[in-house]
Amino acid sequence: MTDFSELWPGGPRFAQAETMRLSTDSVLLADFARLRGGEKGIDLGCASGAIALLLLTREPRLHMTGLELDAEAAELARENMRVNALTERSRILTGDIREVRGLFPAASFDFVIANPPYYPPGSGRLSPDPARARARGETECSLEELCRAAAWLLPTGGRFFLVHKPERLSELLCTMTAQGLEPKRLRTVCQRPERAPSLILAEGRRGGKPGLSLEAPLILAEAGGGESAEFCRIYHRT
């Protein structure tokens, strides 16, 4: 029996695959994304559908598509949509990000969002479990292939939201630009005020003009160790 739990008191119910656990990265990315009513978005590599669920809960006029290579995770994402009565505003497809040209017409979505694997091939030891390995490393889809897919799916002016690691920031911005996704917003995430960033939240715009806005860092915990006010807001904690 699938175990569904509320993400916060009174919030959407969610069940997750054992090999693809809901991460802080995905929650922060969903909060970072700027939404407009009536839009169509797609989560590339949606796993169990957490990002789509969070976005659909935020914006009642949004429609989300999820694309996931792992068939079991995709089926669980469909279940997550069903138990939250979101099937009419969502669809989950099993498929490969690298094959989006055969799955969707060009410029099909208003925005693309992704929490991709962070580590390039050969950069570290990967799990022997294929699903865990795909979630951590670029074994099935590279950063360049992800950005190329996003560019295909977006019209001019469409937005691309993603989360990544600071050590790959230069590569990330260069790859986005090379694929016609001009970086427009950047926000670092720090565990505490005195620590270096551990994550990067970025927004690019298809065919956008140069001009990058660097936002104030997102601090997850105060210097004394307590959760920051913004972290509590994002996680719906009082």
Write the layout of secondary structure elements.
Elements: E1 5-6, E2 13-14, H1 24-32, E3 40-44, H2 50-58, E4 63-68, H3 71-83, E5 90-94, H4 100-103, E6 111-114, H5 130-136, H6 143-153, E7 159-164, H7 169-178, E8 181-190, E9 199-206, E10 213-214, E11 218-219, H8 229-234
Parallel strand pairs: 3-4, 3-6, 4-5, 6-7, 8-10, 8-11
Antiparallel strand pairs: 1-2, 7-9, 8-9
At a glance:
The protein is an alpha/beta fold and 238 residues long.
Sheet with the most strands, sense and barrel status: 9 strands, mixed
Overall structural domain count: 1
Mean pLDDT: 92
By helix and strand content, what is the structural category?
Answer: alpha/beta
Helix content: 25-40%
Basic shape = globular
CATH homologous superfamily?
Vaccinia Virus protein VP39
The CATH topology turns out to be Rossmann fold
- CATH architecture annotation name: 3-Layer(aba) Sandwich
CATH class: Alpha Beta
